[in-house]
Amino acid sequence: MAGGLAELGVGRGDVVSWVLPTWVDTVVLAAALSRLGAVQNPIIAIYRDREVGFCVNQTTARFLLTPTQFGGFDFAAMGARICAENPAVRHLAVERGSFPSGDPSSLPAFVAPSATETRWICYTSGTSADPKGARHTDATVGSFVASMGACMEVVHGDRYALVFPFPHIGGIALMFLTVQTGCTQLLDETVDPVATIEFLAAERCTHAGTGTAFFNMYLAGQQRHTGPLFPHLKACPAGGAPTSPAVQQRVFAELGARVVSSWGLTEAPVLTSGRLSDPPATLASTEGRPLPGVEIRVVDADGALCPTGTPGELRVRGPQIMLGYQNPALDAAAFDADGYFCTGDIGVVNEDGYVSITGRLKDVIIRNGENIAAREVEDLLHAMPAVADAAVIGLPDERTGESVCAVIVAIDGGPSLEEIHATMTAAGLRRQALPARLVVRDALPRNPAGKVLKRQLVDELRAG
Predict the structure, then answer these.
(1) Tens digits of per-residue pLDDT, 102-132?
(2) Domains in the chain: ranges and CATH
(3) How far is the C-alpha of 326 from the C-alpha of 320, rounded, in Å?
């Protein structure tokens, strides 16, 4: 594949954006681009024109790879639209088995990247309407993987479920885990509550993650199954959003393995992790301890250090921290004077060093492990003529972790949820960010400075 990409003109330092499903070919593509020394911009296949176009333009990509069709969406047409607006970008529409291929004998010698050379630009929705690109090196991505694997006792021959989007930085990290440990990745391009279960069971899955929605799917599969669904299961990795103790208890009781939670961000992947050897109560109530080399400080609203056991914003330093954002103007607010990355997550570090996440400073909703910026949905709501005011909040959801709820002040009855979906889809918003619930209010609660009291809205809607 590297030979075929080189024949198309891909070379060292070229930025290649790729929006692809979790295919074996996609993993091979990532390795082939690394062989050529390209800078990779992996984009999750739920993104559409608006986000993909932004990423392609900001990274100054030379190439864009997409499927032709996938999940009922015409990616080839989207790629053509994006490249029509940016003629410097070459679009390749591919299918499984039809990726570029060529003679590897003509490839230039491999040049190992430096520890500070950008090799990955991974976007996160963050807290603003525009995605934020985190610049990573092979060193930042590879630094934590062996320790993460050790926490879950991953060894040669284990079979790890990669059933979330591979372009996510977690997927890239699992590619490193395969190289470092010799484990096998079980790739599933489209998660299906029946087919995925059968696939993982047939393939003797040892590590099945990776969040509440997946655990509920596995539990439902076990209820349909006679005997152990995953008889070789060692651990259930969890990340993206905390998994409730109740779900964790069910997983252990019915599937026979402990949930091992971790905490991280696209900008700073897998900072902490539980260990299979941790006490069950600790696994259920924390995201584990810092991985080697990770320093965590807890600060209050003024930036002063909090006493042990007191909640505050978690700030971190460590080998997996990104170099900075693709837009360097964002860096000043992202790091404090001591070089700690400001995560925006609220948490507690206990006397034994275990971390518990208790909330977020960031106005972001995590649905099925993916970030949805409230503002990007609010901006589209505010643009609708029948909406006088709007706020978007995340509500707890047993299936997805959180769901998107739009709270609006309507004009002349306001739009229906179906009309909102149609408008936002036409504007290029991805399906996963569409509101699942619509609430109409006479007014939104605000503080004296005019800020919407979202916590109050969440509490009121959860109560009834």
Answers:
(1) 999 989 999 999 999 999 999 986 545 688 9
(2) 2-112 (3.40.50.980), 140-317+337-360 (3.40.50.12780), 365-463 (3.30.300.30)
(3) 16
